[in-house]
Amino acid sequence: MSIKIALAGNPNSGKTTLFNDLTGSSQHVGNWPGVTVEKKEGRLKDHPDVIIQDLPGIYSLSPYTLEEVVSRRYLVNEKPDAIIDIVDGTNIERNLYLTTQLIELGIPTVIAINMIDVVRKNGDVIDIRKLGDALGCEVVETSALKGTGSEEAAAKAVALAKKPVSKDAPSVYNGSVEHAIAHIEESVEDLVNPQYLRWYAIKLFERDEKVLEELNLDEALKNHLEEHITACERELDDDAESIITNQRYAYIAKLVQAAVRKKHTGQKMSVSDRIDRIVTNRFLALPIFALVMFCVYYVSISTVGGYVTDWTNDVLFGEIISGNLSAWFESIHLAPWLSGLIVDGIIGGVGAVLGFVPQMLIL
Ligand SMILES: Nc1nc2c(ncn2[C@@H]2O[C@H](COP(=O)(O)OP(=O)(O)OP(=O)(O)O)[C@@H](O)[C@H]2O)c(=O)[nH]1
Ligand SMILES: [Mg+2]
After folding, report:
1. The sheet that has 109-114: what strands, in order across it?
2. What are the residue ranges in the chain where pLDDT is below 50?
3. What is the pLDDT of residue 33?
4. Is the CB of 20 under 6 A from ligand 1?
5. What's the rounded Cα separation, in Å, for the pair 269 and 140?
6. Number of the ligand 1 atom closest to the C-alpha atom of 30
7. Separation of 288 CA from ligand 1 center, angstroms?
8. Between vectors from CA 180 to CA 174 and to CA 185, what angle results, nearest 5°?
């Protein structure tokens, strides 16, 4: 029987580059997010029994964007035997947000810290052992572009797919959230695939609409789950979805602090950073905001906008359209009341409103 390995990760993290390297195919790669919207399938070079699935890039497993829906549906419904989570090592903090969600799926996962060539060039050091111990996963350094580490990542994923090793789940959430999740797991354990139990429980805690729709729980059970969720929300004084998001971020921040050492280069700030520093300055931000708003108002109402609006009202509707129409109506001897209705009523009325369109466009 063939083994299915999914490549999942943030947009632009290098999934398709790794896919091409592993399968020897030449799918399109591009240096901008959203290149892969459909999923692509290939076979691992020299291992025709291993199917590699390239998925669209996603930031989370929520069901909000097309990419998320496609990737999530594949990961949950097609049940791959292992996942290679491609993490952009130059942006590790943001990428690990998805990693924490992928691990919750309960599918054996290998984390590929990709773009390691750039990480090294920047002088940063990532402690992959610490990351692996905390997340309970195998971690491999890769450069999909240069082809280093790819085979090791694939070999580890194949080994895990054949013989899953169960490790402790990372401690992302605090006691009260884990307590609620445990209750939810207990309530729905007969309704979902046991492998995905924790993922379903967390999604139910977040009140994920797609999961609620899919499981179609009866009212009594829904109310029972709601009691646990609201108790936790009251205790932590936040809504369930934000509780999960915030605790994920807090966990990742601590993990990155422990496992990643960034080289403090005396690099010059980019132009955008310098602009940011000024426009978000504590004292200057509001006066700058007021000045920008005044300039926008001045340009759109007084100068350019005023001129264009006057021209639209007085010349376009006042002289060109009304003048020409009146002359034409006179030449065809249209009744003066009908000509007045069209020229003064309809054209005049519509013109008075349309005259403001240029100002709105400039605004
Ligand atoms: N330096 C370096 N660049 C890489 C590496 N892996 C990928 N890239 C580059 O990163 C860009 C994005 O790569 P893709 O493979 O298209 O990324 P993706 O994750 O498939 O992107 P989406 O399909 O949009 O989610 C390309 O320009 C690649 O050449 C790497 O290990 N090192
Ligand atoms: Mg891609």
Report:
1. 40-44, 47-54, 3-9, 82-88, 109-114, 138-141
2. none
3. 58
4. no
5. 31
6. 16
7. 38
8. 120
Ligand 1 site, residue 30, Cβ cutoff 6 A? yes
Q: pLDDT tens digits, residue range 10-37?
A: 999 999 999 999 998 866 665 555 566 6
pLDDT tens digits along 198-234 = 999 999 999 999 999 999 999 999 999 999 999 999 9
Dihedrals phi, psi of 64, to nearest 5 degrees: -95, -35
Output b/e per residue, 39-60; b: 16+ Cβ within 10 A.
bbebbbbebeebbbbbbbbbbb
Rounded distance from Cα 15 to ligand 1 centre (Å)? 6
What phi and psi, each to the nearest 5 degrees, are found at residue 233?
Answer: -60, -40
Q: Is the CB of 10 under 6 A from ligand 1?
A: no
Residue-level pLDDT at 301: 86
User: Helix, strand or coil for residue 116?
Assistant: helix
For 26, the token pair is 């030449």
Distance 15 CA to ligand 2 centre (A): 5
Q: The CATH number of 175-251 is which of 2.60.120.650, 1.10.287.1770, 2.60.120.10, 2.40.110.10?
A: 1.10.287.1770
Neighbours of ion ligand 2 (CB under 5 A): 15-16, 35-36
Q: Map out the domains of the chain as residue ranges.
A: 3-162, 175-251, 303-362
Cβ contact 7:84 at 8 Å: yes
Bridge pairing between strands 109-114 and 82-88: parallel
Name the closest ligand to CA 116. 1
Phi, psi (deg, nearest 5) at residue 49: -85, 0
Could you tell me if 173 and 137 are in contact, meaning their C-beta atoms sit under 8 angstroms apart?
Answer: no
Ligand 1 pocket, residue 29 CB under 6 Å: yes
Regarding beta strands 82-88 and 3-9, do their DSSP bridges make them parallel or antiparallel, or are they unpaired? parallel
Write the residue with the smallest CA distance to atom 8 of ligand 1. Answer: 14
How far, in Å, from the CA of 249 to the mean position of ligand 2? Answer: 25
Q: How far is the CA of 11 from the centre of ligand 1 (A)?
A: 9
Token pair, residue 198, equals: 């924790």
CATH for the stretch 3-162: 3.40.50.300
Closest residue by CA, ligand 1 atom 23: 36
